[in-house]
Amino acid sequence: MDKIVIEGGHRLGGTIDAGGAKNAALPLLFATLLTDELCRLKNVPDVADIRTTCRLLEQLGARIRRPKPGEFLVDCSSVGASEAPYELVRKMRASFLTLGPLLARFGRARVSQPGGCAIGSRPVDIHLAALARLGATIEQEHGYVDAHAQRLEGGHVILEGPSVGATENVMMAATLADGKTLIENAAREPEIVDLATALRGMGAGIRGDGSSVIEIEGVESLGAMKHTVIPDRIVAGTYLIAGAITGGAVLVRGARPDHLSSLLDVLSRMGCRVAREADSVAITMENVPRSVSVATAPYPGFPTDLQAQLMALLCVSDGLATVDETIFENRFMHVQELVRMGADIRLNGHRATVRGLRSLSGAPVMATDLRASVCLVLAGLAAEGTTEVLRVYHLDRGYERIEEKLSALGAEIRREPM
Ligand code: EPZ
To answer: In what order do the strands lie in the sheet with 83-84?
Structure first.
């Protein structure tokens, strides 16, 4: 149980690496369950959610080696029809992405229901309805989903909502189904395209990923995965906002500007100078940021995973802005903690109205989930005095050695045991 301690008021400057994308690496690791050939995955971030994923895969019978930092060799040849237990699924709901691959390869899967989480109820009804469209028999009892299918059959799936997880689960399942599958209203996130690219490398017949209509021609079996994970656009966006909130100049190496266009548009309108290169993005903020209103939306709209970080910036911007959270029903847990730091934020259902102030004041604050915790770190960088962020295990789920990386940019930040 560590805490992060920040002395605010230091302008950040320099270069930092984006690192591999957590939300791409998780489904990619689960996709290795689709084959009995050895898989190699590179640029995997060293974060807690990846470690939980590896524990789950090993519990299912996989053998995992790490020849180099960020490189994983995964062998699922001795995995059998098995169960993803509650104690791991409740820790990380992305574990529900074992359902599609296990069902497709073994004709049976038993996976714990993820349950709710801090940011919302997050049901899995869209996943289950879509797998049933591919011919799976789905039973739910005792907190588990039991799915059976001799062999999945290709079908026409219309997702009720563009769910990232449901698109990934069904796309993976359909790769080994008999015949063609069409997924309509599919999610378009870059992590979906990264998964589809890796699956194509394994011999899958996938087209249309990145659009809302994906077509999959099922095959008998898949070969080995050899893939390098895309850069983490949410981590990259977080570090760009860290630069902006301290009036600094930060370059994020490895970041893909095309994956960040909605954020970069907002930062430009706030007065940031933005420099886009093929594999890096840099921002410079010389003046007090101008307030700009945002509404979260599925990709390519403004990502809900950057909503809290942007709200921290709006707290010290010039003017009034609204932030509409349209994806999750309970993703304003950071607001009361920002108010404890002196922020002026009014909540009304899915809308937060933020009146920008000259500065915030450092305070002890409590992290509640991954993105809320990093929002408080950003606020602490801009605040006068000392901020202590408690429960940083949330942060470690998705950010690799954040205090070291921010220190390298000039922040006064350290980790301390509670
Ligand atoms: C992914 O979660 C990400 N996680 C989330 O990032 C991200 O916030 C989210 O997509 C939206 O962009 C990973 O990739 C591991 P969804 P996922 O299914 O797949 C509702 C982070 O901070 N829904 O697109 O779970 C759901 O409740 C995390 O890194 C249903 O109603 O998100 C939500 O309101 C947090 N029924 C909305 O759809 C379903 O069956 C979007 O959820 C599925 C989803």
So the answer is: 83-84, 108-112, 144-148, 137-141
